[in-house]
């Protein structure tokens, strides 16, 4: 089976990219989603994306599939309408793959979203063994939205994302997989974090989190944004991931290996203090990293951007 290009097939709970309207029908035991207009990349008009029975069997009958929002090896996210009225006209429905590890991760994500109750990330409305129904967030991933947006807007979105991460930490959780695909940028300039399948519970007395491992004890994370080592996650790993994205914007590339920020020249507009904080946040030794993700952002964001960020907040 051939899937469409990565321009609109991306993983993440609630990943909501603006795509052409599609028409859904059930034919021969499969969902065929046919674009009503040509995509800029991927399928052409008249082509069909065929989804296996494993998805259609677990999509509750009360939901009408409007659009495929994204997907990957671990599952697919759809834009759906609740035919019974329910909580809203449009919702995001995440369907996971049938293997036990993926179902465990989805169940865990549902528990995290239930505990958060909409404090940050999408609000969860329904949880089943292989599906979650949650808020539809009409935004683009930070990785896509920052293209051509300029440094100010890219940093503004990261500041909003950091505010959500701080709320998550205050609520007793560590996200565990912060990366460009798991930050959604909204039209109003704000940003939301998504995909809580790797989130861990933080102990009040140890600033640590309950280990939640899958795939023979390995965490589901993205290597470029995950700090070494990964035996036990805590909130300073989220700080590291945020520092990687800040480094990408300010320097123009990802850090190249452990301690790379120490040898990269300080970019123009970043204070010596801010650069020192960023270098600490990128340390392979988590004891050297700051605990507070907002303290990192405030220190690193160039002073010339302060007014713009205050207006965007």
TrEMBL record:
Pfam families: Pkinase. The keyword Kinase applies. GO terms for molecular function: ATP binding; protein serine/threonine kinase activity. SMART domains: S_TKc. It comes from the Bacteria. SUPFAM superfamilies: Protein kinase-like (PK-like). Keywords: ATP-binding, Kinase, Nucleotide-binding, Transferase. InterPro entries: Kinase-like_dom_sf, Prot_kinase_dom. Residues 63-301 form the Protein kinase domain. This is Phosphotransferase.
């Amino acid at each position: 089976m051939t899937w469409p290009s990565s321009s609109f097939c991306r993983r993440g709970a609630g990943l909501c990219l603006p795509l052409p309207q599609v028409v859904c029908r059930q034919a021969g035991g499969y969902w065929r989603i046919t674009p009503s207009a040509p995509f800029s990349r991927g399928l052409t008009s008249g082509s069909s994306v065929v989804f296996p029975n494993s998805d259609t069997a677990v999509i509750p009958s009360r939901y009408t599939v409007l659009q495929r929002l994204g997907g990957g090896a671990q599952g697919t996210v759809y834009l759906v309408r609740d035919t019974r009225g329910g909580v809203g006209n449009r919702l995001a429905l995440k369907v996971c793959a049938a293997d036990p590890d993926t179902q465990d991760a989805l169940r865990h994500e549902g528990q995290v979203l239930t505990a958060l109750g909409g404090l940050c990330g999408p609000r969860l409305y329904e949880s089943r063994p292989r599906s979650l129904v949650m808020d539809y967030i009409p935004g683009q991933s930070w990785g896509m939205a920052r293209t051509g947006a300029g440094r100010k807007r890219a940093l503004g979105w990261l500041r909003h994302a950091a505010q959500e991460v701080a709320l998550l930490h205050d609520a007793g959780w560590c996200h565990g997989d912060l990366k460009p695909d798991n930050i959604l940028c909204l039209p109003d300039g704000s940003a939301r974090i998504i995909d809580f399948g790797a989130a861990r519970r933080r102990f009040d007395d140890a600033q640590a989190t309950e280990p939640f491992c899958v795939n023979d004890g390995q965490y589901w994370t993205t290597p470029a944004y995950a700090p070494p080592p990964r035996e036990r996650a805590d909130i300073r790993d989220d700080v590291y991931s945020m520092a990687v994205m800040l480094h990408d914007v300010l320097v123009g590339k990802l850090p190249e290996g452990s301690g790379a920020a120490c040898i990269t020249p300080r970019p123009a507009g970043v204070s010596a203090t801010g650069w020192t904080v960023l270098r600490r946040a990128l340390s392979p030794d988590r004891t050297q990293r700051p605990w507070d993700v907002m303290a990192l952002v405030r220190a690193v964001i160039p002073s010339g951007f302060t007014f713009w960020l205050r207006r965007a907040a």
